[in-house]
Design goal:
- There is one protein chain.
- This protein is α/β, with parallel strands linked by helices.
- Helices cover about 40% and strands about 15% of the residues.
- The chain is built from 11 helices and 12 strands.
- The strands form 3 sheets. A 7-stranded parallel β-sheet has the order 3-2-1-4-5-6-10, with helices on both faces.
- Keywords: Carbohydrate metabolism, NADP.
- It comes from Penicillium ucsense.
Length: about 325
């Protein structure tokens, strides 16, 4: 099976690529604006092809007529899109449209799994967001994601592609360096203390809730989407809210203390960031994931287990 991953140098792209490359059944093309690496430790690195490419200029160059599926992970994150409107619009919308156009001309009907976000929603929101709640984003990033979701819907309705849009929860705990996402601290407040460094929490409210999913569970759900029947959702409504769990800042701190020890809390500080807080407070905190669960998607058991998994990964590296 031949798979293309865009934005493949990023965390999610590398995570998924490693899982695919552990199975000899997959040939994986990784592409990004920078040269994407083959994930370390993959069992079958010879099955990877890495291409440095700009989807704004050369989307056609990364596409083969024999492609079976595409994971579209490229993009500028939330705070980055808010800080640079032109860059967010070009990378998040124009590059995606270029990719979809190249796909419909070269391999019509190909499966496309597009990564969207809970940032498509904005206030006011009900206590629990259902699939019937209309997205009203309060950030450029969320607005850009809605535009691309609409493209995925229409290209699928017209049978140009077989698209699925996955609205990700915030992924925590992400390894590596902080990102330009407003939610970056939701990994940093665990990752940095466990690595012996400080983390600034940009909101002074320990009751603040976030909708989170672990990397391990996300990958399971990404692989599941590769096998979903094309008609499992309507042809013009392709978005699926990926399951998550609701966790407060205090509960995250408690998990850090339980898994890492009391001393790790000393590496956390809290200070309101007026540019970030409005973005954070615009996002929903609870979802009804009945549709996703009925399709076979999984959710995490607890955030404490997520922290334990991350700590175990540090000990193994």
């Amino acid at each position: 099976m031949q798979i293309l991953i865009t934005g493949a140098a990023g965390f999610v792209g590398q995570l998924l690529a490693k899982e695919l490359l552990n199975d000899p059944a997959y040939q994986v093309t990784l592409t990004d604006i920078v040269q994407p690496p083959v994930p370390k430790g993959a069992f079958h690195p010879q099955n990877a092809t890495c291409i440095k490419a700009d989807l704004l200029k050369a989307a056609q160059d990364v596409i083969s007529p024999s492609l079976d599926a595409v994971y579209a992970f490229h993009g500028i994150m939330s705070s980055g899109s808010e800080a640079n409107f032109e860059l967010g619009m070009s990378v998040n919308i124009d590059a995606t449209r270029n990719l979809l156009e190249a796909l419909r001309k070269t391999c019509p009907g190909v499966r496309v799994i597009y990564s969207s976000s809970q940032a498509v929603y904005g206030q006011p929101l009900p206590d629990i967001v259902t699939d019937s709640v209309i997205p009203t984003p309060e950030s450029s990033y969320g607005a850009e994601k809605i535009v691309c979701e609409t493209l995925i819907n229409d290209y699928t309705r017209r049978k140009f592609i077989t698209g699925f849009t996955l609205r990700f929860p915030t992924i925590s705990v992400r390894p590596g360096a902080p990102t330009a996402a407003a939610s970056s601290f939701l990994s940093g407040m665990i990752r940095e203390p466990l690595n012996g460094t400080e983390c600034l929490i940009p909101i002074e409210d320990r009751s603040f809730k976030s909708w989170l999913c672990s990397p391990k569970t996300l990958v399971q759900n990404l692989l599941l989407t590769l096998q979903l029947p094309g008609d499992s959702v309507p042809p013009h409504i392709r978005q699926i809210n990926v399951p998550g769990i609701c966790v407060t800042v205090q509960e995250m701190m408690d998990a850090l203390k339980t898994v890492g020890g009391q001393d790790k809390l000393k590496l956390l500080s809290e200070k309101e960031d007026p540019a970030v807080v409005p973005i954070l407070r615009s996002w929903p905190t609870r979802f009804d994931n009945s549709q996703a669960i009925s399709l076979g998607f999984k959710r995490d058991e607890s955030f404490e287990q997520t922290v334990r998994d991350y700590k175990a990964s540090l000990e193994q590296s």
